[in-house]
Design goal:
membrane, rod-shaped, transmembrane helix, transmembrane, single chain, mainly alpha, 1 helix, 36 residues
């Protein structure tokens, strides 16, 4: 396991994962606000 050299694939996967989490949280908030 090499901690320092980051693979280009990881640089693509990390922002995609963060974007996915943001979208999921935004969808939950949107549904909660849509009820009111």
């Amino acid at each position: 396991i090499r901690p320092f050299p980051i693979c280009p694939a990881e640089l693509l996967v990390l922002p995609a994962g963060l974007f996915f989490v943001v979208v999921v949280l935004f969808n939950r908030w949107y549904k909660i606000y849509a009820i009111y």
